């Protein structure tokens, strides 16, 4: 008996989806890989500020926080410029490469040519602002590539899988390179020479990733990929009003923002070094455990991401978000209860406690990965729904508007974490792994490490109750968009002949 071939998404849904080749998706998301290399370099900025520019540690933290807010402000302006620009060959490669060139030049000026030259804080701040402009330009263009490459609901989540794999692996690899290769060559000290050598090598590697990313988007990087529908030539001009219109009138985008912002705040607070000190160093008594767990979690995290892409492709981004948010919430509640009921200092000394602790923690990390994959697909759905709603294709606008919230939340994360530890007595000194655990530390750690994420997931579930872009609705959205594009294609040749 002959095997019946499995239907494609286009056949099953009655929509002619555009699809990308697997290698195109993999290459295109190397833009995120390139960005992750710079992310590792930015992590070394505090050492650079002190060793290369004589900036005090406390002042360095303020500079990085304030400039992060500037990052959120500049994003919508750059997004608007990217939307307005029309090139004969497209726009993704142009802004990806120009953004890379600007951020690379700024990094080389900061780490190599300007470091240890007595140029001071003003020079550092000015070049770091230039870096932020190039970084934002490159990131927005790179994040636009997914919605442009494919609108196939089964394929779209795989874009986020590749982005997530690079986000996990590349920082880990390059952090290891800096600490295992470069640091020992300079006496295990973060000297100006060590930072300079690291920056030169990393910028060269990022260029390779950037070129591959441009190859990945080359086929779709053309003007027709960014065309609006059912609007006149005059109304096709993108303005600040369009950005406000998306934020004020696209209900799906509003709910997506609420979901993303609440999850982001919990993620940023939990990732603060001081919170890691409370959890791993003081309560569990092993400061290195957090780092080891993050490395161990990479492989199962990738497996969960691949599974999450298949689940999201089959059930839609809304269903995947709701289902796996519930799973995250339950697992986090179990972890919190476990930590409150047992003596955490005894966990690592008892196999009966160690196994359930590690197992539930890795499951929670994996379930969170599925939510992340669904979140990436959801942003692409929102972009297509806006095309259906207003007739304008605004990937840069949606991305940049989301980035405003992302940057503001990220800048608040450290403030919230430091304020929380101050409430339990750490007002003049920071928590150290050698500190003794007590009830106040335990309760505050549970609130920040598990309670805040649980609150974020509850906000997500509430927001998703009114989110309309489920699997069925997205099929209808794609049908309406395809129909209007077909009508426009019939009208434009007639207009050209008249």
From TrEMBL:
GO terms for molecular function: symporter activity. The chain crosses the membrane at residues 30-49, 55-82, 94-113, 119-140, 161-183, 199-218, 265-283, 289-307, 319-338, 344-364, 408-429, 441-464. Keywords: Membrane, Transmembrane, Transmembrane helix. The keyword Metal-binding does not apply. InterPro entries: MFS_2, MFS_trans_sf. GO terms for biological process: carbohydrate transport. One of its GO terms (cellular component) is plasma membrane. PANTHER family: MAJOR FACILITATOR SUPERFAMILY DOMAIN-CONTAINING PROTEIN, MAJOR FACILITATOR SUPERFAMILY DOMAIN-CONTAINING PROTEIN 12. This is MFS transporter.
């Amino acid at each position: 008996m002959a095997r019946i071939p499995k239907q494609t998404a286009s056949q099953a849904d009655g929509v002619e989806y555009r699809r990308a080749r697997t290698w195109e998706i993999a290459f295109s998301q190397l833009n995120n890989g390139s960005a992750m290399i710079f992310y590792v370099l930015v992590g070394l900025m505090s050492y650079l500020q002190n060793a290369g520019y004589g900036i005090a540690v406390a002042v360095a933290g303020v500079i990085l926080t304030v400039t992060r807010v500037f990052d959120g402000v500049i994003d919508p302006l750059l997004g608007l410029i990217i939307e307005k620009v029309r090139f004969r060959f497209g726009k993704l490669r142009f802004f990806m490469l120009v953004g890379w060139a600007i951020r690379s030049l700024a990094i080389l000026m900061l780490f190599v040519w300007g470091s240890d030259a007595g140029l001071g804080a003003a020079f550092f701040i000015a070049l770091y602002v230039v870096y932020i402009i190039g970084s934002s330009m490159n990131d927005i263009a790179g994040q636009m590539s997914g919605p442009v490459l494919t609108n196939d609901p089964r394929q779209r989540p795989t874009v986020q899988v590749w982005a997530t794999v690079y986000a996990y692996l590349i920082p880990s690899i390059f952090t290891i390179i800096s600490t295992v290769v470069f640091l020992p060559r300079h006496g295990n000290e973060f000297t100006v020479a060590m930072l300079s050598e690291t920056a030169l090598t990393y910028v060269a590697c990022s260029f390779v990733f950037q070129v591959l990313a441009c190859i990945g988007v080359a086929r779709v990087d053309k003007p027709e990929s960014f065309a609006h529908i059912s609007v006149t030539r005059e109304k096709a001009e993108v303005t600040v009003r369009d950005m406000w219109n998306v934020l004020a009138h696209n209900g799906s985008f509003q709910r997506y923002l609420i979901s993303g912002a609440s999850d982001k705040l919990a993620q940023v607070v939990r990732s603060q070094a001081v919170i890691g000190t409370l959890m791993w160093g003081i309560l569990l008594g092993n400061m290195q455990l957090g780092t080891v767990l993050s490395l161990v979690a990479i492989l199962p995290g990738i497996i969960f991401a691949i599974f999450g892409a298949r689940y999201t492709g089959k059930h839609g981004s809304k269903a995947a978000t709701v289902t796996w948010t519930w799973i995250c919430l339950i697992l986090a509640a179990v972890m919190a209860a476990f930590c409150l009921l047992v003596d955490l200092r005894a966990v690592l000394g008892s196999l009966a406690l160690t196994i359930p602790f590690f197992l539930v923690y890795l499951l929670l990390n994996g379930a969170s990965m599925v939510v992340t994959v669904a979140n990436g697909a959801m942003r692409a759905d929102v972009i297509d729904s806006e095309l259906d709603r207003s007739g304008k294709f605004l990937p840069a606008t949606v991305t940049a508007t989301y980035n405003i919230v992302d940057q503001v939340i990220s800048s608040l994360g450290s403030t919230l974490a430091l304020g929380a530890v101050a409430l339990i007595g750490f007002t003049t000194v920071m928590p150290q792994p050698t500190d003794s655990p007590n009830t106040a530390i335990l309760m505050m750690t549970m609130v920040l490490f598990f309670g805040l994420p649980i609150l974020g997931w509850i906000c997500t579930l509430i927001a998703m109750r009114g989110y309309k872009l489920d699997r069925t609705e997205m099929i209808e959205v794609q049908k309406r968009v395809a129909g209007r594009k077909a009508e426009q294609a019939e009208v434009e040749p007639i207009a050209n002949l008249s």
